[in-house]
Design brief:
The complex is a heterodimer of chains A (365) and B (422).
Chain A (H helix, E strand, L loop, with lengths): L7 E8 L8 E8 L4 E5 L6 H9 L6 E6 L2 E2 L10 E4 L11 H11 L4 H14 L15 H13 L5 E5 L7 H18 L2 E6 L2 H7 L2 E6 L2 E6 L1 H6 L4 H6 L4 E11 L2 E6 L4 E6 L8 E6 L5 E2 L8 E12 L3 E8 L2 E9 L12 E6 L5 E3 L5
Parallel strand pairs in A: 3-8, 3-9, 6-7, 7-8, 13-20
Antiparallel strand pairs in A: 1-2, 1-4, 4-5, 9-10, 11-12, 11-14, 12-13, 14-20, 15-19, 16-17, 16-19, 17-18
Helix pairs in contact in A: 2-3, 2-4, 4-5
Chain B lengths: L1 H6 L10 H43 L2 H6 L1 H8 L11 H16 L3 H11 L3 H11 L8 H8 L6 H9 L7 H6 L2 E3 L6 E3 L7 H32 L2 H12 L6 H12 L4 H8 L15 H25 L3 H9 L4 H12 L1 H16 L3 H6 L7 H10 L4 H25 L9
Antiparallel strand pairs in B: 1-2
Helix pairs in contact in B: 2-21, 4-5, 5-7, 6-7, 11-12, 11-15, 11-18, 13-15, 15-18, 16-17, 18-21, 20-21
The chains are: A alpha+beta (365), B mainly alpha (422).
């Protein structure tokens, strides 16, 4: 994608607070118009800093941020016309919900009747039509969250930033709000840049996800690609549940490499991020892609596993096994009509297809 | 809720009402908690509540007349003060006898002093009577007493004694508010303009205290804002500078203002030196209202800064950021969003400064001159110099009443729970 069609574009952006360390190291990131882009990463990875630079609350140390074709490095935040939802909502406690929503319209000197119309419309959109005269403190967390979203949208910005907006909600409400925000995004066709450390949130809502670590984007991809085709060990371990097997590459045949595990087992894997024959690698394998007692010919790698522990979870059974010397190898056994009956201590065969096992770099830590 | 409790009293397993059970279970911890605050309670009772009650009683106490002239007062009850005639011989006899008795106990001047507050001349009347009564040995006492001082022959004198012989009096309060009860008619009249000083003094106290409160706010607000926004390390250091005045003697701080502000002081010298004023036009900045305002603003500044600081500390940065992101200019965001949220701090700081200022004594006394003294200086004068404790107490009670009224007004308008002291 070329930068000319990008709506928001970070170009070689660097950020340092103390002049000694870089919090954001050479960030290049393009967002399309109408896209829902999530910046995902652990705390301290630089994602919030990027958002704050985009909003204008942090200065860019080096590089440029382009919004709709023009550099906004020197545009003060109140002139950027970017909606923002803050972590703790930042609703003004001394104003009612209506006054909170009217605030951005009043500073834009809109007429009273227009303000009333817009406030009513946006309140109905977040299903809080009858709460307009309440104060934020009189609302539940979920309702406050909705008001915050409504306020960031009421002045019809083209771009909305959200900084971990669901962090303070409980799990059930969080999931419900994820859908609501997703639907609002789809209906209004605004561009959303969303920051979170919660991967399921990112996977649920985003068009694309940028995984941050250590001030660098580790991978930028669609949710399914990110989960199924992680490009490096960090992304594989950060997104979803993941089995890791360490070993050394001993053979390479096209895309498929052969890895000798620490206990001597030979495993087939897709060589994604390996340096070549003779180098260490980490194989990443999703628990649901492992077959127990596979039929012969179905799997390209088959090894022996010893069942250590079984956890019944209703729709599936989690089995912790000792495979290739690692006793934290997880296998998800679907609770289907004729699933494998296991008990701790059993020795079984586990197998997988070579393309499901991804040979990646080894994390230095 | 109470109705449902009346309908069915909850009981524990053994049948005792739940409330009694609960009280029993909590009794021990309540006793322990109470015994911990007991020393403080006793201290407050002795050092605070009892003196205040005593002061209250002093301000209405008028037992002195009855105590020293009991028979005369009773005898005067039968006299019709509107008849236009002097009281009869019985009254004069009682008066002579009681003045004699009081003279021995050296108390006769105290009645005179008390009545002198209401009508001047009584002090000398009774002092003179004390000297003269010993030669009055036999009746008729009426003629003898009038002979000793013709004022005893005036109906007015007896009207005053009768008027102010009640157990309790509102006379001190009337005096404190520049009113006076007319001894002849018993009606309340306001004092002529040049004699009325207390209302003016109350008014000045309120006005200067308001000005001081306003100045501490104007100076303190930006400082508190800075303290709340800089890094914790720096703000901790700066807080020490705010608190520094607390650790310096009040006297030192006040007198250093004298050194600065007096006519031959540093500021005047400097202004003369740079030629802003000439040597004859040195500014009078001390021993007047200016001196009081300047020195007290300085002294009370921490009481404004600290509550403001503690409130500002709790206002999330994201409020202003949110306002700015919504399109408000930073100034507007500050004014519309940040400032209203400092309300509890402004309220607490203002009420604290104002209430301390309104009862301040030492600084106005030192630097106030005649135009910068407060009502408390007048109270001190009555307590320690004129020894008119009743009037001093009445002034004190009125001051207390003003403070309480303001407090209630504040509660009504802003709400006391909407105040944060730190």
């Amino acid at each position: 994608m070329s930068s000319s069609e990008a709506y928001v574009s970070f170009q070689g952006v660097q950020k340092s607070y103390d002049g000694e360390t870089l919090v954001v190291k050479d960030l290049n990131l393009d967002t399309q118009r109408g896209e829902f882009l999530t910046m995902l990463g652990p705390s301290g990875s630089g994602k919030t800093t990027c958002l704050m630079m985009l909003a204008g609350f942090e200065t860019v140390t080096h590089g440029e941020i382009i919004l709709d074709g023009t550099s906004i490095n020197n545009v003060p935040p109140h002139k950027r016309n970017i909606g923002m939802v803050f972590q703790n909502y930042a609703l003004f406690p001394h104003m009612t919900v209506n006054e909170n929503l009217a605030f951005p319209l009043q500073v834009r000197k809109m007429s009273k009747s227009d303000i009333e119309d817009r406030v009513k419309k946006v309140l109905d959109m977040v299903q809080l039509g009858s709460f307009g005269s309440r104060r934020p403190m009189q609302l539940s967390g979920g309702q406050q969250q909705r008001v915050a979203v409504a306020r960031s949208l009421v002045f019809e910005p083209k771009l909305v930033l959200m900084d971990e907006p669901l962090g303070a909600l409980d799990k059930q409400l969080r999931e419900q709000m994820q859908y609501e925000i997703k639907h609002i995004h789809e209906n209004l066709e605004v561009t959303v840049v969303y920051v979170t450390h919660d991967q399921s949130e990112a996977l649920t809502m985003s068009n694309r996800i940028a995984v941050f670590d250590d001030g660098v984007i580790q991978q930028l991809a669609e949710p399914d690609l990110l989960y199924e085709a992680p490009e490096n060990a960090f992304v594989a371990q950060f997104i979803g549940e993941n089995n890791t097997l360490y070993g050394k590459v001993i053979g390479l045949d096209g895309d498929i490499c052969t890895v000798e595990a620490e206990n001597g087992d030979k495993l087939k894997a897709l060589g994604v991020n390996i340096q070549g024959v003779g180098f260490d690698t980490m194989i990443s394998l999703r628990p649901e892609r492992v077959e127990v007692n596979p039929e012969s010919g179905q799997c390209s790698s088959t090894v022996t596993g010893k069942v250590e522990e079984l956890i019944y979870l209703g729709d599936h059974i989690r089995s912790r096994m000792n495979v290739c010397g690692h006793d934290d190898f997880i296998v998800k056994i679907p609770n289907s009509a004729n699933h494998a009956q296991l008990s701790p201590g059993d020795t079984v065969q586990v197998g997988w297809k070579a393309e499901d096992a991804r040979a990646l770099d080894v994390l230095v830590s | 809720m109470e109705i449902s409790q009346e309908k069915s009293v909850l009981v524990t397993a053994d049948g005792t009402p739940l409330k009694i059970s609960l009280a029993r279970a909590q009794r021990r911890s309540k006793i322990v908690a109470f015994s911990m605050v007991l020393p403080l309670l006793i201290f407050i009772l002795i050092a605070f509540l009892i003196p205040i009650a005593d002061m209250l009683s002093l301000s209405v106490d008028n037992s002195i007349t009855k105590e020293i002239l009991p028979k005369s007062v009773i005898a005067l009850q039968n006299w019709d003060e509107t008849s236009g005639e002097l009281p009869d011989e019985v009254v004069f006899a009682a008066m002579v006898e009681e003045i004699k008795k009081a003279k021995i106990a050296r108390k006769h001047t105290r009645v005179g002093q008390r009545l002198n507050y209401e009508s001047s001349g009584f002090s000398s009347l009774f002092r003179k009577a004390g000297r003269k009564v010993k030669i009055i040995k036999k009746p008729p006492y009426k003629e003898a007493l009038i002979k000793s001082d013709k004022r005893w022959g005036q109906i007015y004198t007896w009207q005053v004694i009768k008027q102010f012989s009640t157990e309790y009096t509102d006379g001190y309060y009337l005096a404190a508010l520049d009113f006076k009860r007319n001894p002849t008619t018993g009606k309340v009249e306001s004092l002529p303009g040049k004699e009325s000083i207390y209302l003016k003094l109350f008014w000045r106290t309120m006005l200067l205290s308001s000005l001081i409160t306003f100045l501490t706010f104007i100076i303190g607000f930006p400082l508190a804002y800075m303290l709340a926004t800089v890094s914790t390390r720096l703000s901790n250091i700066l807080i020490i500078f705010v608190l520094l005045p607390f650790w310096t003697s009040l006297l030192v701080r006040t007198t250093s203002w004298i050194a600065l502000l007096q006519q031959e002081g540093v500021i005047n010298d400097f202004l003369v030196l740079v030629g802003i004023i000439n040597n004859d036009g040195r500014l009078a900045m001390i021993h007047n209202a200016t001196g009081t305002v300047v020195a007290m603003t300085h002294i009370l500044l921490p009481f404004m800064i600290l509550p403001l600081f503690s409130v500002m500390k709790t206002i999330p940065k994201s409020y202003v950021r949110a306002a700015v992101s919504l399109g408000a200019h930073p100034w507007k965001a500050f004014w519309k969003v940040y400032f209203p949220n400092t309300g509890p701090g402004i309220g607490a700081g203002s009420i604290l400064v104002f209430i301390i200022a309104i009862g301040y004594y030492i600084t106005p006394a030192l630097v106030g001159g005649s135009s910068g003294t407060f009502i408390s200086n007048r109270i001190a004068y009555h307590i320690s110099s004129s020894l008119n404790w009743g009037l001093g107490s009445a002034l004190g009670v009125i001051l207390l009443g003003i403070v309480l009224a303001l407090f209630m007004l504040y509660d009504r308008i802003v709400g006391i729970d909407n105040m944060k002291l730190g």
